[in-house]
Specification:
heterodimer; A: alpha+beta; four-stranded mixed β-sheet; B: alpha+beta; Butyryl-Coa Dehydrogenase, subunit A, domain 1; Butyryl-CoA Dehydrogenase, subunit A, domain 2; Butyryl-CoA Dehydrogenase, subunit A, domain 3; 3 domains; four-stranded antiparallel β-sheet; 12 helices; 8 strands
Chain lengths: 356, 381
């Protein structure tokens, strides 16, 4: 096994212990996040440094490593705010700290240790981050962006289109609106900012910033594949043990073909995520590939989980079995990347432009 | 359930590959024979000449060892040629079954004499190959074949019948799967023969397919005598060789298909643009383009695994299954957009729509691919 594979296996085993299904279901039913002590244990494994390089005190895993661990996170349903904090907010804080922001440096150290500082979002086409500096200092505005923020979180990173801002949730001009989201227990909140002031070090620009957004997006795709893969594993277990008409469900060809179709989608997703991670690693990316995958992979993963529910029959529709948590996660990711219809039109537009 | 590694290697191209790509592209631009003739036999003739020219230029079988006419390059270079070729007017190699499938299989299992004898003719298309697998009573259930080869001294005597044999009427050689041990269990008693189609007792009867083109044939064997040197690998070892050959049947084949389908999609886009209908088609175009990109990732993964000798049994069934689905999706979508024109004008779309129905049938039906995935990748029984 490579070092990365060993790390992924260890991470998988730890998450399986730390995120048992009853706890996840309880958090979902309460629509509030898991206990902070679980987060601290997971952060203790090094999760918050996955997207940092060596100079920043990170694991220097690159896009391939981040995507591999995100796939594990998907299998184990790691809370969305912990993902966004590690993959967006923490890299932004590290860049702010590099720019001489002492407060960011302290926040970074604290967040790496305990987490709970905030969340982030990667902007997609059509989502704007408006910057103006008419008053001498920079101000940021954005309209009703969705975040997952841990309770007590105070910062969000908004990353995309080649720049990033780190914004105080309680800052001037920022309004927030909590929401009971489909993916329960994740701390969903809508934020709107109208000319909220930024210090120089909280406005970041350049290639590195764009890479942070790209890796986050690739990690979402990997996470969806991980979640769907777990749903398939449950469906295979069920179909090979549950008997009806004196034989296992899997021995009916109609069921085994459903499982084969699910496996096809998972492996196609794995190939695409691998291709994207490798491209990001060598900085050979184009928006066309990301757009193409942002439609197909979440859609495939969604279809896999829908089939998993069907293969399980009634048990798949119960609260306590928990398949719905994978469904909620995959749908959350699909929506976060723009949803089926928007991503389809976006990839269509890009394809047409490339053929012109 | 067995777990696959989280991420997998995919094919990568070095700067040297890109230089090579430029040289292939420049040569093709200079030598492209132009639009394919519509008449079937003219098309075959043109395709043979095209492969001969490509071979003379050193672009066929580039990953084969130099002593057998190759360039000793890697599979990524082979992928470069397949991708560039797919941009030409004649994207399909007439002898692709030999170049992509049976040549590599011969390199793995053949004797030195067999390699020397057969490989050069595969490359320059002077000897076309077909593959004798399916029979009237053995289609999806391949191990049920009944065509026999009886050992008689230093010879084998073949009797029986094959069906759906593509390009049989123009083939000089046939990679023929026969039963050599009727007593053994179905998979164990089979052998793979390299059969000269000009031998006495071989009869080819073209079987027009639904396009009324004689693309495939029935082939009859009436006590055809071949020397034992026609056996590829071990006698009774034909099943394993056939499965190894099937593994080669994906990678480059599918890659070439992807680019060809991308070109057809670009043609559809162009027509929609001309008609001012592009906005209505964005979602459909998006889906097709997106699926083709995912298939490309899958094929790059398969090629990387092939190159490393690590392709898992059954893994490339995913490539075949998904390629077939996109293929049919593209041409039915095209028909739906182009409507009456597509039905009433001979512009290629109607032809390709009809032809696309074969993709989910040949080389293992979609249902067989799902069985393989269920059994070999999910371990279901």
């Amino acid at each position: 096994m490579t070092e990365l594979e060993e790390l992924a296996v260890a991470f998988d085993e730890s998450l399986a212990n730390l995120l048992p299904m009853p706890e996840l279901l309880d958090s979902a039913r309460r629509d509030s996040e898991l206990e902070a002590k679980i987060r601290e244990q997971i952060y203790g494994l090094g999760w918050p440094t996955v997207a940092l390089n060596q100079e920043q005190g990170g694991l220097d895993l690159g896009a391939v490593g981040v995507c591999a661990l995100a796939m594990v996170a998907g299998r184990r349903l790691l809370p969305a705010s912990w993902r966004d904090e590690a993959l967006l907010l923490i890299p932004c804080l590290a860049m702010s700290a590099d720019a001489g922001d002492r407060e960011a440096e302290g926040l970074l150290a604290n967040t790496i240790q305990r987490g709970g500082t905030g969340g982030g979002v990667g902007l997609r086409a059509g989502q704007d981050l408006v910057l103006d500096s008419t008053t001498g200092s920079a101000n940021a505005s954005f309209s009703r962006l969705a975040f997952f923020v841990p309770s007590g979180g105070r910062l969000v990173a908004v990353v995309g289109h080649g720049r990033a801002v780190v914004v105080e949730i309680a800052g001037s001009g920022v309004t927030s609106e909590s929401s009971r989201a489909l993916d329960l227990g994740q701390g969903a909140v809508f934020l709107t900012a109208e000319s909220t002031p930024l210090t120089d070090t909280r406005l970041l620009v350049g290639e590195e910033v764009e890479l942070v957004a790209q890796i986050w997006r690739a990690a979402l795709l990997a996470e969806a594949v991980g979640a769907a893969e777990q749903a398939l594993a449950l469906a295979v277990d069920h179909a090979t043990t549950r008997e009806q008409f004196g034989q296992t469900l899997a021995s009916f060809q109609v069921v085994s073909h459903m499982l084969a179709e699910m496996k096809k989608r998972i492996e196609l997703g794995r190939s695409a995520v691998s291709m994207m991670a490798n491209a990001l690693e060598t900085r050979k990316t184009d928006g066309g590939l990301m757009a193409a995958y942002s439609y197909a992979i979440p859609q495939f993963c969604r279809e896999v989980v829908e089939s998993a529910i069907q293969v399980h029959g009634g048990i798949g529709f119960t609260w306590e079995y928990g398949l719905h948590l994978y469904y909620r996660r995959v749908l959350q990711i699909q929506a976060r990347l723009g949803g089926k219809n928007e991503t389809l039109v976006e990839v269509g537009r890009k394809a047409v432009a490339s053929m012109a | 359930m067995r777990r696959t590694p989280l991420l997998v290697p995919t094919l990568t191209f070095t700067p040297e590959h890109e230089v090579f790509r430029e040289s292939v592209r420049a040569w093709i631009a200079e030598n492209d024979p132009g639009v394919e003739p519509t008449n079937y036999s003219d098309r075959l003739r043109a395709a043979m000449l095209w492969q001969r020219d490509l071979c003379e230029a050193g672009f066929i079988g580039v990953s084969w060892p130099t002593e057998y006419g190759g360039q000793g390059m890697d599979l990524a270079a082979e992928a470069v040629v397949a991708e560039e070729l797919a941009r030409s007017s004649m994207p399909q190699l007439i002898n692709r079954l030999a170049v992509y499938t049976w040549g590599p299989t011969l390199l793995d299992f053949g004797t030195e004499e067999q390699k020397q004898r057969y490989l050069p003719g595969m490359l320059n298309a002077s000897e076309i190959w077909c593959q004798g697998f399916s029979e009237p009573e053995a289609g999806s259930d391949l191990a049920a074949i009944q065509t026999k080869a009886r050992v008689d001294g230093g010879e084998l005597v073949i009797s029986g019948q094959k069906v759906w044999t593509s390009r049989a009427e123009i083939s000089r050689y046939n990679a023929l799967l026969v039963r050599t041990d009727p007593e053994a269990t179905p998979h164990r008693g089979l052998s793979l023969l390299l059969l000269d189609m000009e031998l006495p007792g071989v009869t080819v009867r073209p079987l027009p397919q639904l396009l009324d083109e004689p693309h495939f044939s029935e082939v009859f064997f009436d006590d055809v005598r071949v020397p034992s040197s026609a056996v590829l690998g071990e006698i009774h070892g034909g099943w394993g060789i056939s499965m190894a050959a099937m593994g080669y049947e994906r990678g480059l084949f599918v890659l070439e298909r992807i680019i060809r389908l991308k070109r057809r999609l670009a043609d559809l886009v162009e027509r929609l643009r001309r008609d001012g209908n592009i906005e209505q088609g964005l979602s459909e175009i998006g889906r097709l383009h997106s699926h083709l990109e995912v298939l490309r990732a899958q094929t790059y993964r398969t090629l990387a695994a092939q190159g490393a000798g690590e392709l898992k049994p059954g893994a490339s069934s995913i490539d075949k299954l998904f390629m077939s689905e996109i293929y049919q999706d593209l041409f039915t979508t095209g028909f739906d957009f182009l409507g009456e024109r597509s039905a009433l004008e001979d512009d290629g779309w109607a032809h390709d729509l009809l032809e696309s129905r074969s993709v989910t049938i040949y080389s293992g039906t979609t249902e067989i691919q799902r069985n393989i995935i269920a059994r070999q990748l999910l371990g279901l029984r």
